[in-house]
């Protein structure tokens, strides 16, 4: 079978996959098993020689339609869908676009990824943000064909054998979620599987990762979303979320199983609620090849932007240590950005011993400015809580509003990392301060 190899060859002028496909694919299937496998199915593009050799003659219409013709036909159908739904509600249009792409994904993965790669600007918002949030919310009703793997609390003690149910002999990239904090939507339980699926499709289409070596994974430890627990279409465990050691034992078992089979894989933790995001990062970062996208991925991109902003102002990079930074959002993304920014300042400053009291950061959450006077101060936010003494602003108390903070601090940088809408209102935006938003 040449379908995957041929597609990779045709795309060679645009991009080389991170793991090259060296030659023809060996197919150990025949007949309808091939037509039902999206990796090998080429729909009506099978030539007569392959139809004879693979037991497909008579199982397909006689006309041979080439890969290129199928591509054009799909794009024509997609454009027709756009035209026919132009007056519909945005959510209806978004889900219709996702469905037509998902049906192609279920049927012919070679053509699917070719379509994504060639039209990434148009299709990225469909397969990932913002449509993926809508897909996750409605996943029970949209589900047609399983994709990825599901490990639940009921599978405790069985994960080491379960991991071998995945057909790929090699996996390079695993995106893992427990569905506890999906985008700004909160706990969506097993329906959060849409995030790993969409993220990995982006990695294939935009970063050239070999699509045969990716694995989306849902770790279902229950849900505290009452609406889902009462939903007859909900596909996950109908129980409250595990907590404490019970929760960690499930994650431990999965990590051991995954790296036992694929010791060179990378595991990306995605959309875990903050307490588990930080806990699991510290628990596994020195033992397995893993990272947390919300903490480290967002922070890496944000830090690049912060350093780039200093250069754009014509200042030396060392001036970053003097930047006053206000961050709105005290979740894993906000604290992750501040932690990485603090590390960068320590390295630039060159004297980490004296950096413990150095605080150029102001952190706010839904309750306003976070200070050391806050009751039940989150340990993750504690290093960035304002106190008293040198460097503090008078009359800027616990819970101060964003407008107060901006007016009194006069920050160089204002970062929004909160899922709460309407925070940067007209008053904040019109404040005459050198803020970069």
Automatic annotation (TrEMBL):
Listed cofactors: Mn(2+); Mg(2+)
Ranges for domain Malic enzyme N-terminal: 105-285
GO cellular component terms attached to this protein's record: mitochondrion
Presence of keyword GTP-binding: no
InterPro entries: Aminoacid_DH-like_N_sf, Malic_enzyme_CS, Malic_N_dom, Malic_N_dom_sf, Malic_NAD-bd, Malic_OxRdtase, NAD(P)-bd_dom_sf
Annotated catalytic residues: 128 (proton donor), 199 (proton acceptor)
Signal peptide from the UniProt entry: none
Gene Ontology BP term (one): malate metabolic process
Protein name per UniProt: Malic enzyme
Species: Colocasia esculenta (Wild taro)
Lineage: Eukaryota, Viridiplantae, Streptophyta, Embryophyta, Tracheophyta
